[in-house]
Amino acid sequence: MYVAVKGGEKAIDNAHKYLAEERRGDTNVSELSLEQITEQLSHAVSRVMAEGSLYDPELAALAIKQARGDLIEAIFLIRAYRTTLPRFGYSNALDTADMTIDRRVSATFKDLPGGQILGPTFDYTHRLLDFALAAEGLEQPRAEMSDRELDPDMPRVLELLNNEGLIESASQGFFEDDAPVGDLTREPLEFPASRDLRLQNLARGDEGFILALGYSTQRGYARNHAFVGEVRLGDVTVEFTPEELGFAIDIGDITITECETVNQFQGSKTLPAQFTRGYGLAFGHCERKVISMALVDRALRCHELGEEQVAPVQDDEFVLSHSDNIQATGFVEHIKLPHYVDFQSELELVRRLRKQAQESIMQAAE
Amino acid sequence: MNIATPVSRTLGFDNKVFDATATFRTVLEALSRPGTIHPLPAAVQTLPGISAPAMAVLLTLADVDTPVWIAAECDSPELRAHLKFHAGCPITSDPARAIFALLSITSDMTVIKQFSIGTAEYPDRSATVIVECSALIAGKGPVFTGPGIKTDVAFDIENCPAALKSAITRNHQLFPIGVDWLFTSPEELAALPRTTKIEE
Amino acid sequence: MDTIPDPASGNSSRKNWMGTLARASETDLEEFWDLYGKATEYDFLRPPEFGLVMVQGRAGGNGQKFNLGEMSVTRCSVLLSDGTVGHAYIAGRKRRHAEIAAVFDALLQNQKRHDKLNEMVIAPLADKRARALSDRSRKAAATKVDFFTMVRGEDA
Question: The domain B16-199 belongs to what CATH superfamily?
């Protein structure tokens, strides 16, 4: 039972002022600008956009500044803000094959049309702290430029397997194309959840939670032996059809990261042995997130592929109910707030039980 | 969807955010105090044949996720264009899909049976029915009781058709499912949620 | 009204200029506004307003649709004194950008003004974007890699 508490307005006001001062820190140090955050902490901005479920780098930067770098708190601020805006409608589905590529690698095929593009990656860095970055006034780093542009044709890697019929088709199978698309921000989740809702949930789910679940599939819990068919990072056009125009227009470009895994599948009574797919997609640059998402997406497809459910990662109710860090932090952290009345009743219960026990010991002794 | 909708040249609210907020507050108040009559708190441009309160309610509540069904007595290409442009709501010809329905007391009331009344699990998945009236009358007529009414309240609609009155009675008997009613006159609005009972 | 016809071909060019205006930087737009836009008389049918568009993706890139998340969008509609209506839908929260883009959209629909505006505003904006995309592509191309598979053992 919840019982309201009153009072403490002055203390709360003062706590907010203290928070504001701490947020600013030492005033001899220059204040962070939102541009500095969007330009120089872009992975933090990506995470806040992906899990805040709102693409707007400037707002994400503001949230990060306000939250003093606590990304879950920043995500909370973004989720709260988005509820204040009307929804104009739904975009046309993104065409990720037509992406302006910054990075595109495959772990399964070394020679692929368009080539392997490393892009701005941490992958081959030595993970040694670069003390040069601690100094100010560094020489401006410059990327090299090739004489030639990228091959304009960058087909999706798994389509190569699809041409041979060795992998399930993504464009047909366990869904109807004109079915309404579920939206968990509008309707409560029901289980079993269809793949559209699972993907929406994972795309905004906590990176750490999804990473851990993805890892569990590699360690043998619902093993499905995944390879990264392709990871791509870049900008994709968002098309929207306003009612008053009646045709689609480009409203801008957004940066996204996409991952497709190729997974072993032994075949079932109805399906031949072939490769299957897992899919990850999220706002911004967040490879760890989309690779994990693809692993978890594939594991959650166990029922439609006729696999036995043996691990937590295959349980859609478990995964989808616990992936949202705003729901999780709300429930976990709320137990630090005043629960005086609830606790008082528990206290009385324990005292009564102890008293009864004591009395029965006394009686037995008599 | 390849034919462009003509754009409405009529403006909506004078000040979208504040006027919609004030209208929302008034609708909330009307639903919380069934049978009480409220003046429209906002300035809104409307179209011939549609009352300002009905227009304000639709511009406030309807959006891209709420199909609106419009009875022939209220319908016009201009109204459809206006609602699509300012509220972004789809217009449906299927009463069962409507989240909001707009009709007049002169409309054929048999359509009411087709509006969505929600389900036992999700009673909220039901229609809100806006009925355009010539006048709303306080303190006279049928007597209502229920949540939000201290003892009872008398409220009437000028020239209320018998079919509408019996639909309101039947609707309450369905509680917790059922539709919710909003009544609009040229300058005012009132509401009867499904919780409100007509006393005979 | 002396406007660009609206059948498929007309729409595709309108789609182009609306996309170019949407992607332009606000600084560039302000510059063109001073030169070609600010003398225009217009009223708002819908003043610039912020909202959201739910972005949809497809599983596997071409499979089942799903809701990825929302993006912030600013839209605006204007009415010129000659009766032409211009619209803008712009990614982000950019009132001024949306207003300028909506007025240019209306101006570009007028046959008499279209060619000049297309040449003086849309073409330079499109060129600038093409150059930026080319630089970006060449940066990525410099990181193109050929992996060699090292064969181990004797039966190579």
Answer: Bacterial phosphonate metabolism protein PhnH (3.40.50.11310)
